[in-house]
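U., I forgot to send this yesterday:
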Amino acid sequence: MTRRARFPARFHTALARKAAALAALAPACALAATAPAAQAPGAILHQPVLSAELALRLAATARAACLRNGAQVAVVIADTAGQTRLLVAGDGVSSIGVESARRKALSAALVGFPTAGLVEAAKVAPAYTDMLRAMHGDMLFLAGGLPLRVNGQLAGAIGVGGAANGEADEACAKAAVDELARQQ
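Result:
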């Protein structure tokens, strides 16, 4: 014979009140779920996402710009959350170059501005950059990462690593940003 747990009356009363409150909210929730998104003032309705084909083209553009200067590099395209969507590494690129490109793309995506700006920010506002490092340990404060924008909205970022220095990496990334601007 099984024994059923007995709950005090106050438990049943509290449970009944919560169920009544949820039942009262149900019509409003159903209405909100079926309401057109356009009714939400100020909401972003469409966030641009780079297609795989466009990401490949941008990476190829950046890599070609570096190759013209004799540098084999790694190129990473990241989404707006900094997640790697595409990684292309030239022949002989070290794992340091690959990781540098990944972390530059992530950093540019997370802050929405060039990683060269993080280098400057570290000089003038170390508390800000310390906070960024504490929040995301993979942030990299070197030039070579640029945001990718479509119609003014952040669509991701590009990071380049493996050229002679961060400025050379950034010049290659800039070629991809210019290519993206021509696509719009």
